[in-house]
Automatic annotation (TrEMBL):
Protein name, entry field: 5-methyltetrahydropteroyltriglutamate--homocysteine S-methyltransferase
Sequence ranges assigned to domain Cobalamin-independent methionine synthase MetE C-terminal/archaeal in this UniProt record: 470-801
GO terms of molecular function: 5-methyltetrahydropteroyltriglutamate-homocysteine S-methyltransferase activity; zinc ion binding
Record-linked SUPFAM superfamilies: UROD/MetE-like
Coiled coil region boundaries: none
Length: 807
């Protein structure tokens, strides 16, 4: 009998309850006990929904209060020194607890949220700043989910410090559910972690992976504990296998999984948690792409099963891979797309399933999602009657995808593998025949290039605008306060008129402009109060898009986004940002009685709109990018013709979209870069084009960034402590445009001190030409309070003015 399962389920709940429960605890509105009870019920509700929709095997351990990577780090005691010292007494009680984890639970929750959010030592009236910075945040492979980067040092002592995963398994078992615990794999954990330089010898990266031997005891202890309570299968996620791994990482895989099996066997002989009636089995899970050449390694590892992402890893549908699978192994087939929202081709999926049934025993086949369903919304229930029927009929969210898995399983009930010959059809990954005819693949097109290079353009721009050294600005958004959200909801519900809503937005914009002038910022923004989200806003103003009522997905922690859906050809319906941007410019001129003020137009670039939307899959993505680029181009030109001389076209997701394997990257780089250039290159040489990027390894895409030909690049930098553009990387020597590396982290409630900002700017001045350097935060201010933004920007501007005077 074929089994049905998924790799994970959305954590946030059908109505973003996770956000409400956790944030109310942070605010002190609810107690820890209330938060734990509420989130536990949400976790159990997920199990009920999965079972009711027809799954045979349910995942446990996929639920998280913030991030599954920091969950794993904390479980194995990967706690940076600054937090260990701060929580010394609390952690001592954890370390001395017994195997059942009998300790004061609050202590670990405090550590957990400190790792995620940092700890501020500033009061509301104190602008000296300081505190303990949170863990760095980066994109989870090529998705828009952000994970927290574990920090490992010489002092890190790997050990299992809590047994919550075991408790969750037991709880689910007692409720009658057949479950499979989910654990982030050791090699991927190391791959995602950063190692303090002191822990390395001459920066030798091999040292990082040599630490895997220290992880063997903690993983074997965890699995021995699960085995002792009757767990039959555990899912170990190793999505690093969807990348091209090198020899050192291959050795790391081989070393860990062989040593781990030996360690687990030793524990069985003297298992203090009891005698297991059945040995636990491991299914190794890869997703976001194919195993490709890595499967030769994987097939030698002592695991009992493999998961295949057959939606984004169709390259594994070949005889070389399939013939390498031993017949007694379990194969998990990721036939349902875990990353997009279009309905499954049930008959096509059934054909693939039938092929595997002809090769393997049905008892050893699982039908699954390609990856966790955390990347799609919870369910379509709240969209009934709200989305256009022709769109709604094509969609499947998480709960519907579970039902699709059941449909695939049911479709082969009467299939007789012995009676029917099944041939594996080749999967074509060829580029559309007409694809290269697009303007995005013609580098010489005049539509893609400005008449002067960035150095010559800067001379013209300097003469026009006379900005000071170290000009200060922000990335765009200002706080989306409760008042702003309430007005937006009232307008959507029809409780206030469009005139009332527009009047409120103009009032907020005017106050924001005055606020920035009082702060003495050099280049202003309009605050983006009219935008619910930097992508959804444009989706509401372009044809070919639709937006959902409740289609939320997790971006990081409790931050959720509601991606629009691109279902048809895209065009601009009308001007989208011109009116408010010009209004803000006029407000600034009126307040100062001068026309020297500069307000940036704020737009989102085509690649980011694509990456942060659910995109149609019936044409190549580059064609969608070209359509969006022409729409943004029209808006850019309208801004310019209305007197806006600085225009920011954000592309924070351009690194995120980069395919995981180098052989697939060149095509993407070409259309991604050229879609940005198509959006921006029609302006005059005196118009300053800004762009913004965040949470990426920027040195990996330096050539891509340079080819974008922006006049000013603002870039996340402080949360990663300047490492991405340090002096060692020669970024400053190679980049000729204006550059604004962020000088403080906006995703933490900590107010940055002047000392901290000054230190960062001084380090940046060692790397970048003072004539090119801008001073700005890491990212937009949308998620912070007005008070936090005010204090942080006061410190930032003060430091810039101080250093400007010294220079």
């Amino acid at each position: 009998m074929v089994s049905s399962t998924i790799l994970g389920f959305p954590r946030i709940g059908p109505n973003r309850q996770l956000k409400k429960y956790v944030e109310s605890y942070w605010k002190g509105s609810t107690t820890l006990e209330e938060m734990v009870n509420n989130t536990d019920e949400l976790r159990l509700q997920n199990l009920r929904v999965m079972k009711e929709n027809g799954l045979d095997i349910l995942p446990v351990g996929d639920f998280s209060l913030y991030d599954h990577v920091v969950d794993t780090a904390l479980m194995f005691n990967i706690i940076p020194k600054r937090f260990r010292e701060h929580f010394e007494s609390e952690l001592s009680s954890v370390y001395s607890s017994n195997a059942n984890g009998e300790y004061e639970k609050k202590s670990l929750y405090d550590v957990y949220f400190a790792l995620a959010r940092g700890i501020g030592d500033n009061s509301s009236k104190d602008i000296t700043g300081g505190g303990l910075p949170s863990l760095e945040m980066k994109k989870w492979f090529n998705t828009n989910y952000h994970y927290l980067v574990p920090e490992i040092s010489e002092e890190t002592e790997f050990k299992l410090i809590h047994h919550d995963l075991i408790k969750q398994f037991v709880e689910a078992k007692q409720l009658g559910y057949v479950t499979r615990p989910v654990v982030l794999g050791p090699v991927t954990l190391l791959y995602l972690s950063k190692i303090e330089k002191a822990a390395l010898h001459e920066h030798n990266r091999v040292e990082k992976y040599s630490l895997v031997s220290s992880l063997v005891p903690v993983y074997s202890e965890l699995l021995a504990g699960l085995e002792a309570v009757g767990c039959k299968w555990v899912q170990i996620d190793e999505p690093i296998l969807s990348t091209d791994i090198d020899e050192e990482i291959s050795k790391c895989f081989f070393s860990f999984y062989n040593s781990f099996k030996s360690s687990l066997e030793s524990r069985r002989k003297a298992n203090s948690l009891g005698n297991s009636p059945e040995k636990i089995s491991v299914i190794l899970t890869n997703y976001f792409g194919s195993y490709s050449q890595n499967f030769k390694l994987v097939s030698t590892l002592p695991v009992e099963g493999y998961h295949f992402d057959l939606f984004y890893g169709k390259a594994d549908l070949n005889e070389d891979v399939i013939s390498g699978i031993e017949k007694d192994k379990v194969v998990s087939l990721g036939l349902v797309d875990g990353r997009n929202i279009w309905k499954n081709d049930i008959s096509g999926s059934a054909s693939i399933l039938k092929y595997f049934i002809s090769k393997f025993s049905p008892e050893n086949i699982w039908i699954s999602s390609s990856c966790s369903l955390m990347f799609v919304p919870y369910g379509l229930g709240s969209e009934q009657g709200k989305l256009e029927k022709r769109v709604l009929d094509k969609l499947a969210f998480a709960t519907e995808k579970i039902n699709e898995i059941k449909q695939i399983k049911d479709s082969i009930k009467n299939f007789d593998a012995s009676a029917e010959g099944i041939a594996l059809e080749s999967i074509s990954n060829s580029v559309d025949s007409d694809l290269l005819q697009s303007v995005l693949f013609n580098d010489e097109s005049p539509e893609l290039n400005r008449s002067l290079d960035v150095v010559e353009r800067k001379k013209i721009q300097d003469s026009l605008y006379n900005l000071p050294l170290l000009p200060t600005t922000t990335i765009g958004s200002f706080p989306q306060t409760t008042e702003v959200r309430k007005y937006r909801q009232k307008f959507k519900k029809g409780e206030i008129s469009k005139e009332e809503y527009d009047g409120f937005i103009r009032e907020k914009t005017s106050k924001c402009v005055k606020w920035q002038l009082d702060l003495r910022l050099d280049v202003l923004v309009h605050g983006e109060y009219e935008r619910n989200d930097m992508v959804e806003f444009f989706g509401e103003n372009l044809s070919g898009f639709t937006t959902t009522s409740n289609g939320w997905v997790q971006s990081y922690g409790t931050r959720c986004v509601k991606p629009p859906i691109i279902y048809d050809d895209v065009t601009r319906l009308n001007q989208m940002t011109v009116d408010l941007t010009v209004f803000a410019q006029n407000c600034a001129n009126k307040i100062t009685k001068t026309e020297k003020n500069k307000v940036k137009g704020m737009l989102t670039g085509p690649v980011t709109i694509i990456q942060w939307s659910f995109v149609r899959n019936d044409i190549h993505t580059s064609k969608v990018a070209e359509q969006i680029a022409y729409a943004i181009r029209d808006e850019v030109l309208d801004l310019e013709s209305n007197g806006i001389c600085m225009i920011q076209v954000d592309e924070p997701a351009i690194r995120e979209g980069l395919p995981l394997r180098p052989k697939d990257q060149e095509l993407y780089k070409k259309w991604a870069v050229n879609s940005f250039k198509l959006s921006t290159s029609a302006v005059k040489n005196g118009t300053v084009i800004h762009t913004h990027m965040c949470y990426s390894d920027f040195n990996e895409i330096f050539d891509l960034i340079k080819k974008m030909d922006a006049d000013v690049l603002t870039i996340e930098n402080s949360k990663s402590d300047l490492k991405l553009i340090s002096k060692d990387n020669n970024f400053g020597e190679k980049y000729s445009g204006g550059i604004g590396p962020g000088v403080y982290d906006v995703h933490s409630p900590i107010i940055p001190s002047k000392t901290e900002i000054r230190s960062r700017v001084n380090k940046l001045l060692e790397v970048f030409d003072k004539e090119l350097l801008w001073v700005n935060p890491d990212c937009g201010n949308k998620t912070r309070t007005e008070e936090q933004v005010d204090l942080a920007l006061k410190n930032m501007v003060s430091v810039a003015e101080e250093l400007r005077g010294k220079i």
